[in-house]
């Protein structure tokens, strides 16, 4: 499926800084919007329904699966997450650039549906640093953190299937790298041809 807008998919193990990077990117790039996923997990801290996620019960989530409302869905850390088909299609067809912040399972599913989707994986600089970030976050107990660390090894192993890999050692450097990926995609020949068709036609490039 080809659309006027670009689709960026960002994945990372828990604690790698994915959400913080995407939030900062959105504040800097007015031409980029985030697609809010649905989840069955409970809100954390100051999270609001419709901002970080659409928080729904499992029965409602299962009904949405049966109706085909999701492009992709997966179970992560015991909770269900899904990406709305309608929300993404409408934005992309309007020519908007959309960023998805999802797990690697969903990212790989999206790539099968949108071959042109740009997959970006965020890596921690080390396992020790990832553990420290999870501890500093103060949201989970020791046992939960150990489970997240085990899952992280499986998740990191999937980075080879992504188009770009960013190591989040220094936040500002990682943010610059993320901005660079987005800007580079917008300058690709096929993207420019699609979005600046009048210029290309005037130059006899179509």
From TrEMBL:
Primary location: cytoplasm
Listed InterPro entries: GK/Ca_channel_bsu, Guanylate_kin-like_dom, Guanylate_kinase, Guanylate_kinase_CS, P-loop_NTPase
SUPFAM superfamilies: P-loop containing nucleoside triphosphate hydrolases (SSF52540)
Keywords: ATP-binding, Cytoplasm, Kinase, Nucleotide-binding, Transferase
Substrates-to-products reaction catalysed: GMP + ATP = GDP + ADP
Enzyme class, first EC level, given as a word: transferase
PROSITE patterns per the UniProt record, alphabetical: GUANYLATE_KINASE_1 (PS00856), GUANYLATE_KINASE_2 (PS50052)
Positions of ATP binding: 12-19
Localization per record: Cytoplasm
Record Gene3D superfamilies: Guanylate Kinase phosphate binding domain (3.30.63.10), P-loop containing nucleotide triphosphate hydrolases (3.40.50.300)
Alphabetized GO MF terms: ATP binding; GMP kinase activity
Entry EC number(s): 2.7.4.8
Domain of life: Bacteria
GO cellular component assignments: cytosol
Pfam families for this protein: Guanylate_kin
HAMAP family: Guanylate_kinase (MF_00328)
Family as reported in the entry's similarity comment: Belongs to the guanylate kinase family.
Known role: Essential for recycling GMP and indirectly, cGMP.
PANTHER family noted in UniProt: GUANYLATE KINASE (PTHR23117:SF13), GUANYLATE KINASE-RELATED (PTHR23117)
Protein name: Guanylate kinase
Higher taxonomy: Bacteria, Pseudomonadati, Pseudomonadota, Betaproteobacteria, Burkholderiales
């Amino acid at each position: 499926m080809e659309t006027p807008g670009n689709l960026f998919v960002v994945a990372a193990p828990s604690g790698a800084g994915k959400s913080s990077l995407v939030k900062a990117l959105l504040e800097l790039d007015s031409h980029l919007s985030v697609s809010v996923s649905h989840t069955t997990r409970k809100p954390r801290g100051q999270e609001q329904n419709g901002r970080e996620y659409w928080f729904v019960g499992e029965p409602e989530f299962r009904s949405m699966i049966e109706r085909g409302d999701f492009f992709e869905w997966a179970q992560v850390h015991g909770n269900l997450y899904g990406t709305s088909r309608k929300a993404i299609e409408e934005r992309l067809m309007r020519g908007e650039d959309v960023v998805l912040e999802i797990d690697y399972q969903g990212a790989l599913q999206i790539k099968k549906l949108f071959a042109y989707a740009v997959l970006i994986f965020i890596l921690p600089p080390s396992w020790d640093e990832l553990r420290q970030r999870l501890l500093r976050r103060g949201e989970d107990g020791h046992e939960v953190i150990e489970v997240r660390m085990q899952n992280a090894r499986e998740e990191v192993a999937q980075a080879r299937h992504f188009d770009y890999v960013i190591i989040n050692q220094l936040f500002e450097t990682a943010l610059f790298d993320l901005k660079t990926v987005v800007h580079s995609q917008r300058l690709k020949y096929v993207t420019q041809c699609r979005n600046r068709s009048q210029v290309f036609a005037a130059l006899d490039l179509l």
